[in-house]
Amino acid sequence: MSKYWIWFLLVICNLFWAGNYVFGKYVIAQMTPLWITFARWTLALFFLFPIAHFIEKPEWNKAKNEWFSLICLGLLGVIGYNLVLYSALEYTTATNAALVSALNPCVIVIFSIVLYRESISLLQVLGFSLSLIGALVVLSNGDMERLLQVQFNRGDLLMVAAVIMWTLYSLVAKRMATPPITATAISTAFAVLLMAPFAFSQGIDMAQIGSLAITGIIYMVVFPSICSFVFWNIAVQKIGVSKAGIFLNLIPVFTAMISGILGERVTGSQGIGGLLVFLGVYLTTGLLEAYLKKEKPVSTVSG
Questions:
Q1: pLDDT tens-digit profile of 225-248?
Q2: How many CB atoms lie within 10 A of CB 122?
Q3: Is the dihedral of CA 195, 10, 169, 249 positive or negative?
């Protein structure tokens, strides 16, 4: 599998996650964060195990050697991140949540350099910086002073916790020997089993669940849950956490694009910010660096 295919998976992965923000704003009005998380991942299990079995053909027994790491993946990425994200949307605006989540690539890079000694070039640092600036331009609509006027509340603090959880999830996933789709399936199974007693204890009134919430859950199951998590874990294992993390800055750009398609006005400043993000991602992937060296990028992954 080439680098270019990995980068394509990361772009699609974050496009689907951007849709999760859009649908999440509507679904959270009809379901609790616990039931959104429990419902989407329970349904996702019916797809993840067959996909893992037929695509990766794993030796399931060997996965038991990494049972602790798999449980950590379930706690951090499936339960923790999603519960905290949906809880944050109850207390803060989508703009504030996206602003805080824009810190994710920075946190991932710092953690991966400190813990895993991942190397990053000066050109990639430039790419990361441009991407972060672009994300902030999108979020502030070109008025960077607005960022200094934001009043942070409980939801924003929850988003900081979500950023840290996703960073830790990615760092654990990087070191997994279990194939990525298989790891996603098993960790999800652990997470669903852990959530079940709490979900059934809380209960849910199905009469209050409308068609919009059902549509949102179906979207969350197929795209952010199955496709995005599988694509992300594949990319992290192949190219590293820091390089994959920079693609997370595409989320606010794609969110703005989806909002524009749904009728919301997208400004020129947001368009410029989006271009900066894509330029930053381009630099970070090392394509321009390879071009300047007049070398063809060499794939470091196999398969």
A1: 899 988 988 888 888 777 787 788
A2: 8
A3: negative
